Amino acid sequence: xxxxxxxxxxxxxxxxxxxxxxxxxxxxxxxxxxxxxxxxxxxxxxxxxxxxxxxxxxxxxxxxxxxxxxxxxxxxxxxxxxxxxxxxxxxxxxxxxxxxxxxxxxxxxxxxxxxxxxxxxxxxxxxxxxxxxxxxxxxxxxxxxxxxxxxxxxxxxxxxxxxxxxxxxxxxxxxxxxxxxxxxxxxxxxxxxxxxxxxxxxxxxxxxxxxxxxxxxxxxxxxxxxxxxxxxxxxxxxxxxxxxxxxxxxxxxxxxxxxxxxxxxxxxxxxxxxxxxxxxxxxxxxxxxxxxxxxxxxxxxxxxxxxxxxxxxxxxxxxxxxxxxxxxxxxxxxxxxxxxxxxxxxxxxxxxxxxxxxxxxxxxxxxxxxxxxxxxxxxxxxxxxxxxxxxxxxxxxxxxxxxxxxxxxxxxxxxxxxxxxxxxxxxxxxxxxxxxxxxxxxxxxxxxxxxxxxxx
Length: 456
Known about the structure:
The protein is mainly alpha-helical and 456 residues long. The protein is 66% helix and 5% strand.
C-alpha cells in the first residue's frame, strides 16, 4: 500500500503528467455530460431506455455510447461513425494501392491525407446512420413531443447528430494532443464502463435479495471476473519474440554493428494481432439474419426457431457459430495486418537477419509459419473470451453484468487501460521515478524492438 501511495504521489508531482491527466479527465467528463443532453423535439419521458439489450445490434451501439443511444442524446451515435470510417480506410489500405501508399510510403503527408479522407467519410456515415436513427425514434410511440413536424425533426436532428459526432471526434483528437492515452479508445471505454456501476449494483441486489447465491455467490462472481481479466491481459500482452542480429559494417578502420555490439533486438509478433476486430466482425454477421428478418416482418423472428436461436446468446448454435466465426476472422484479419514480405524487406534494408534463416524469401516463409502457429492458440483464446458472457449468463448473472465477462467490452477495457498505464509509466521513468510495478514491464499494445510493419 505504501508503494502505491508513493507512486500516486510521484504521478501528481510531475506537472506535465498531472496536467495531461486532468485535461483527459475534463474532456471525458464533457463527453459524459453531453450524453444526457436530449435531441431537440424528443420527449425524454416517452423514451423507453430499456428497449434494447446488450445482445442485439442496437444494444451493442448503446453499450459503446454509454447509454446515449437509448436516451436519444446529442451523442447518440457517439464516436462509432469515426470508428467505422477508420475500419473502412484500414481495409481499403489492404486492397487499394492508393490507400496502401498513403499508409506506408508517404509518411506524414500521407497520414494527413488519410485523416482528411477519414473525417469526410465520418460525416457521410453519420448522415446515413443519423437518418436511420431518427427514423427509429419516429417509429417509437411517444418518443417525440406533440406537434413536432417529422420533416423539421429530420433536418434539425441530422445537424445535431452530425455535430455531436464531430465534436466527439474533436475531443478524442484533443486528448491525443494534450492528454494521455488514445482519445478515441478512452471515449469508447468511458461509455462502456459508465454502465458497470449500475450492472454491479443490480447483480449485488439480486444475489442478496434471495435470487440465489447470496454474498458468497456474489464474491465468487467477482473472483471469476478477475480471473477472466487476468486471462485477457495475458492474451493482450502475449508476444512471440523473433531474435534479430545486425550484420557488422566497417566504420573507418573499425567494424561496428547497428545497433551497438552486444545488444539483441527482436521482432515482436503478437499472439492476438487482430485485437477486437474479429469479435466485431463476427457480431455483425450474427446480428445480420435477425436484423433482416425484423425489417422484413417482426413476427418472422419469433416464428422461426433458427432465428430465435441466433438471437439467444446463451444457445448452443449461437455460441458454436460465433466461436467459429471469431476464429476464422482472427486468421483473416491477421493475414491482412501481418505482411511477412514487409518484414523480410525491412530486415534487408536494415542489414539485419534472423539467426539461422537466410534473408529474403526464407525469412518471409519463416515469419509466415510462426504467425500461423501462434494465431491458432490466440484465436482459440479470443473465441473463448467472446463467448464467456454466455457462460456468465448460464451461471445466473444478469445480462448487463454478464457483458463485462468477455467480448468487446472486456477487451477494449483491458487494452485501453494497458495503453494508458504504459504512457504513465513512461513519464515516471523519464523523470527517474520507479514505474508502476517493481518488476516486469507494462507492454500494452506497443512493444519494444522492431515494431509491427504495415499495421495500425
